[in-house]
Write a structure and sequence with these properties.
The structure holds three protein chains of three kinds.
Chain A (H helix, E strand, L loop, with lengths): L4 H52 L3 H5 L13 H9 L10 H31 L5 H11 L5 H14 L5 H25 L3 H10 L3 H9 L4 H17 L2 H7 L6 H10 L7 H35 L2
Helix pairs in contact in A: 1-13, 3-13, 4-7, 4-10, 4-12, 5-7, 7-10, 7-11, 10-13, 12-13
Chain B lengths: L3 E10 L2 E11 L4 E5 L6 H9 L6 E6 L2 E2 L10 E4 L11 H11 L4 H14 L15 H13 L5 E5 L7 H18 L2 E6 L2 H7 L2 E6 L2 E6 L1 H6 L4 H6 L6 E9 L5 E5 L5 E3 L14 E6 L15 E14 L2 E8 L2 E7 L1 H6 L5 E7 L4 E4 L7
Parallel strand pairs in B: 3-8, 3-9, 6-7, 7-8
Antiparallel strand pairs in B: 1-2, 1-4, 4-5, 9-10, 11-12, 11-14, 12-13, 14-19, 15-16, 15-18, 16-17
Chain C lengths: L4 H9 L1 H21 L19 H8 L1 H33 L4 H9 L6 H11 L6 H8 L12 H29 L3 H10 L3 H12 L1 H16 L3 H6 L11 H10 L4 H37 L1
The chains are: A mainly alpha, B alpha+beta, C mainly alpha.
């Protein structure tokens, strides 16, 4: 048939095939360039970690050789041992293990206080009829951006008056206060996505604020809890300023001890020990990141695509 | 079972009044359907009764109790939602138990009720499944079960069948009607589907624009629609409306001169509530299913129409002929066998019995 | 009459948050601003001399270290903005890269899990002239190479900028990736059909479509830069001299080292004002953007 589309376009489709072959080859060329560039950037990002690891396993003689990128000839755990047990922070030489246990002791109350407070607040603002909810959310939004320094001194006054200065609970309290605006907004946005009819059904069935939270809403919060946990674990463990300001001497977290040891110490600078100490400080959040990072991304996208 | 009473209900959103001075009484054990198009206020009224939103004015009584200021769970109600609203992290059994646990019943009683409801709705094999594993119809049953276990006197339904396919809808209609017969609860049921309303209700409140257009039994609403809106809303295909002018003979007999067709309809036998005067504009309502397409059958007095066919619609068990009447389309139900013989352009002679005519005032829309 | 628990219960549950906001933020901010008008030193002194309420601010802006801090703030902001540029480039490449997208994303994002103290220490180590990268370059034969930025006042800030970029690049890449993924896939197909070259595609179509993402990144970056403290402590502790001081560092120093509450409060108040100046455009543009979105939907 003269109207046969195949015949009519036959030359054109052949040309398209030829063009697409050429383009495929060009694309492969450019995609190799992309890959190489990405590898170079990945190297840039990975190299500092490599340097720290490598330095921390070198005996001091190799460090002074100045070959920063070379692998250790004699792998040794001595710097690690020294960092853990005998690192000096100007006042004492008890090692960074003190900081590790302090950070651990700070972490759990901080998580409990901040997540407990923010999840309930976000839940109340998202799903219950509170007339001033909109205004309050806007104020929280502003508070999320307030720099720490502007509330630091009055918080010190407050925490001292409560008697929590220099204790892990004092630090935990400050972390909870600082995290509340952002976490509340995160929880509120997540809970806002729960279908209205589901909450109405729960209101008709039970009508009890806490019962509904415990039985219905919390079990549905797995995704956002992971996101918030990772966020808070990283924030609290890696924090320096709050721990420095509110920890005093007895509750100094790992970052503070590390900084004291390396930055403000006098006398000989022992680089491999310092790097081992830095690595010890960095490992816990890195473990969380590599283990749960996948859930973190899932959690964010789940919140976004929900519905 | 308690009766439900709405007294002077008003609901405003800012300056927009969704409901204004609405009064309604639902008798003990009644199956009341709130029927109307989207935005007519029926769901708002249901939510006000449930306590999910607050009244601007008026009061609600359940039984003899004024529940206007009470929380939803204190009103003694149960509700079935359009999207089922099952708790996703709980099993079917957990969903059924949830409301009862809040009522502080002992666990033996809770289990008894759960088993009873599961048996009643035939969802026993599903008790350990989660909602995500159920089909739409199964979820619907669980939602109904969740409402039934509370053994409340009043049961609310918010368009529960609109998410089901046609076949399931028919099945569920029967089931809900059966449940009402067995359990006898007072039911308030919201829908936009007139078939659901006509088949299930003991009484229907037809609503539009926040106002109850007519409140009566399905038969009343079908036979004697109170205004043009109700007349057009009930019945499928919709009632044919002819614009006409009233003519009063010197003897007082009324007849209607139709605009579209050279026919005058004798209304001397019509039971007027308010007799029109000469020249009043009328709307004459003729239901498609009351036409007799075989010609006048002599027994009853009839108005006769002889009009060309635009097209015929055949749907297996029934057929409708659409006739051309001066620019207006007239729907006439005909026998499917007859429809096979007809084609566009043919003339069809149909008579309409005078005792099935509906007369409305063209300006106010009200029945005369 | 029964209490409407559905109204009361959530408000009771919100009291802790209310208390935290009122006390921990509202009162605290007000207190600090008030202090900035007083002559408090080690302990709060609540008297204000009405004729001289701006005394601390006078001292502040007459202080060389403060002007250095403000200058460093701008330098740091501009320099760190490269993190946004690199973030976008990385995101664009990762998005196109079919092989190993997940691995690359994981690698680029891990610095975020590292504390700024550790980041600073590690880069300080790499900047070490005799044992770090400079030594490495010398060993390669490039004996005149200089990589000792932290030692001279003029270049120390650049070292901090480099470490900041290293730390933040992945974050901006993640934001850009989200923005890129939200672009309708049909745009790419349409561009291919039109035969638009890659460079033009990105500069004329993609980047303008991502205006809002870029703006968000810019504002988040600025807010992060205002808070820059940890990285300064770890890399240079403010040195050499005061050449790497930032406003955050200045405020902390005024409080902890100089024990001058009034002075520190003034510095903190200026920090707040800077934050507000960055924050207000964000609010306005978000509102404008939302209204735009609504308008396009109607």
């Amino acid at each position: 048939m003269s109207s046969d589309p195949e015949i009519a376009t036959f030359p054109a489709s052949l040309g398209a095939a030829a063009r697409s072959v050429r383009r495929r080859r060009r694309i492969r060329g450019s995609s190799i360039a992309v890959f190489v560039f990405l590898c170079m950037c990945a190297a840039f990002v990975a190299i500092p970690l490599y340097v720290v690891i490598v330095t921390s396993f070198k005996p001091i003689e190799e460090v002074t050789l100045g070959r920063i990128f070379a692998l250790p000839v004699h792998w040794t755990l001595t710097p690690w041992y020294k960092a853990w047990n005998t690192l000096c922070t100007g006042l004492s030489c008890d090692g960074i293990k003190v900081g590790f246990f302090n950070s651990l002791a700070i972490l759990f109350p901080s998580l409990v206080l901040s997540i407990g407070l923010s999840s309930v607040t976000g839940y109340a603002l998202a799903l219950w009829n509170v007339r001033w909810a909109g205004t309050f959310l806007f104020i929280l939004f502003i508070c999320a951006f307030v720099p720490f320094q502007i509330i630091m001194i009055p918080l010190i006054v407050l925490v001292s008056n409560i008697g929590l200065y220099g204790s892990v609970w004092g630090i935990a309290l400050v972390h909870a206060i600082l995290a509340m605006p952002l976490l509340t907004l995160i929880f509120r946005n997540f809970y806002k996505d729960i279908p209205r009819e589901l909450i109405n059904a729960a209101i008709m069935d039970s009508g009890n604020f806490w019962h509904i939270f415990r039985e219905i809403v919390l079990p549905m919060s797995a995704n956002i809890m992971i996101v918030v946990l990772i966020l808070m674990i990283t924030t609290v463990w890696n924090d320096y300023l709050v721990g420095l300001t509110f920890g005093g001497i007895s509750a100094a977290p790992m970052t503070v001890i590390l900084a004291n040891a390396v930055v403000t110490s006098r006398g000989e600078v022992i680089h491999n020990v310092n790097m081992a100490a830095a690595l010890l400080t960095a490992i816990p959040p890195l473990v969380v990141y590599f283990a749960l990072g996948r859930f973190f991304v899932q959690g964010i996208t789940a919140g976004a695509i929900k519905g | 079972m308690p009766r439900v009473q709405f007294d002077n209900i008003a609901k405003r959103y800012g300056t927009l009044a969704v409901l204004h001075d609405l009064n309604l009484t639902v008798e003990d054990g009644e199956f009341l359907v709130l029927l109307g198009p989207s935005g007519c206020g029926k769901t708002t009224l249901l939510n006000l009764l449930a306590g999910l939103i607050e009244i601007s004015d008026g009061r609600i009584l359940i039984g003899e109790r004024d529940v206007t200021d009470l929380d939803p769970r204190d009103r003694g109600l149960a509700m079935v939602f359009q999207s089922y609203a099952l708790y996703p992290t709980k099993t079917v059994a957990g969903n059924l138990r949830f409301g009862l646990a809040a009522q502080k019943l002992n666990s033996a009683e809770i289990e008894r009720r759960v088993t009873w409801a599961a048996k009643l709705l035939q969802i026993e094999p599903l008790l350990n499944r989660k909602p995500a594993q159920l089909s739409g119809g199964q979820r619907q049953r669980v939602a109904i079960g969740r409402a039934l276990v509370k053994r409340s006197g009043v049961l609310l339904f918010d368009e529960p069948l609109s998410n089901l396919d046609a076949k399931l809808r028919t099945e569920m209609r029967l089931e809900i009607k059966k449940l009402h017969a067995e359990l006898g609860q007072t039911i308030v049921y919201v829908t936009h589907d007139q078939i659901e309303a006509m088949t299930m209700a003991t009484r229907i409140a037809v609503m539009n624009g926040g106002i109850i257009q007519q409140f009566g039994t399905p038969d009343d609403i079908y036979e004697q629609p109170a205004n043009l809106f109700v007349a057009r809303f009930i019945g499928s295909p919709a009632m044919n409306i002819f614009e006409a002018t009233a003519r009063v003979s010197p003897g007082g007999a009324v007849s209607a001169g139709l605009d579209a067709v050279e026919t005058s309809i004798d209304l001397s036998g019509y039971p007027f509530a308010a007799r029109p005067i000469e020249g009043t504009r009328l709307s004459i309502g003729l239901r498609p299913e009351h036409f007799n397409a075989g010609g006048p059958n002599g027994a009853a007095q009839a108005a006769v129409f002889d009009l060309p066919i635009r097209h015929c619609e055949k749907a297996g068990s029934d057929a409708t002929a659409y006739l051309e009447a001066g620019g207006q389309v007239v729907a006439v139900r005909i026998d499917p066998a007859r429809a096979r013989e007809l084609k566009a352009g043919d003339r069809l002679r149909a008579s309409f019995p005078l005792d099935r005519i509906n007369v409305f005032d063209a300006q106010t829309g009200r029945r005369l | 009459m029964a209490v409407r628990w559905s109204r009361v219960a959530p408000q009771i549950a919100l009291t802790p948050a209310l208390v935290v906001t009122l006390v921990g933020f509202a009162w605290a901010i007000g207190w600090t601003i008030y202090m900035s008008f007083t002559r408090s030193r080690r302990f709060p002194d609540y008297t204000i001399d009405p004729a001289d309420w701006y005394a601390q601010y006078d001292r502040l802006f007459g202080n060389d270290a403060w002007t250095t801090s403000l200058r460093n703030l701008i330098v740091l902001a501009i320099g760190s903005a490269l993190a946004i540029v690199f973030g976008f480039i990385l995101a664009a490449m990762v998005e196109r890269e079919k092989f190993g997208e997940g691995v690359f994303r994981t690698i680029f994002l891990y610095p975020l899990a590292v504390s700024l103290i550790v980041t600073g220490l590690v880069w300080r180590w790499m900047f070490n002239p005799s044992l770090g990268i400079e030594a490495f370059l010398h060993q390669l034969g490039w004996t005149s190479a200089q990589f000792n930025w932290l030692a001279t006042p003029g270049t120390a800030m650049y070292g901090i900028i480099l470490a900041s970029i290293w730390h933040g690049m992945g974050f901006y890449m993640a934001l850009m990736l989200a923005g890129l993924k939200s672009i309708n896939t049909e745009i790419w197909s349409a561009a291919r059909l039109d035969g638009v070259g890659l460079w033009r595609l990105y500069t004329e179509i993609i980047i303008p479509m991502m205006k809002f993402t870029f703006l968000t990144c810019a504002i988040l970056l600025s807010l992060g830069v205002v808070k820059a403290y940890d990285i300064v402590v770890a890399m240079t502790n403010g040195g050499p001299g005061t050449s790497t001081w930032t406003p955050a560092y200045f405020a902390i120093n005024a409080y902890s080292t100089r024990s001058n509450i009034g002075f520190a409060s003034a510095a903190a108040t200026i920090m707040l004002l800077i934050t507000l100046a960055i924050f207000l455009p964000l609010v306005l543009i978000t509102a404008w953007h939302n209204r735009q979105g609504e308008a396009s939907r109607t």
